[in-house]
Amino acid sequence: MIADPDRPLTEDEVLERVAGLTRAMLHRWLHTGAVRPARIQGLPGYREADVARLELIVTLTEDFDVADDEALEVVLSLLDQLHGLRRELLCLARAVDHQPPAVRHAILEEVRRLRGQD
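Structure (tokenized):
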């Protein structure tokens, strides 16, 4: 039977999937807010994004020695901002792509002009 990729994972399933993650570590990051899974029937329900974030946190703390909660919070905040900006840029690029060729060309020329001002 194939697992439903949209079904949230339980805590035990997350612990099985994320190498190096212990229950104590997971609870610590839940407590600090580094990971914020959805609540399903009063329990955390972990999505793929939560699993990826936990894998990143394990890598940062274990491989890169980012052990301080404040430092981890700063790194995660910066990565969240970067991800948000990337999402915004993709949206903007799609909007530009839907414009007539003359408008796309004018935008490209304006971007080149503005880059030259730096």
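The domain at 1-67 is CATH 1.10.1660 (Multidrug-efflux Transporter Regulator; Chain: A; Domain 2). The chain has five helices and two strands.
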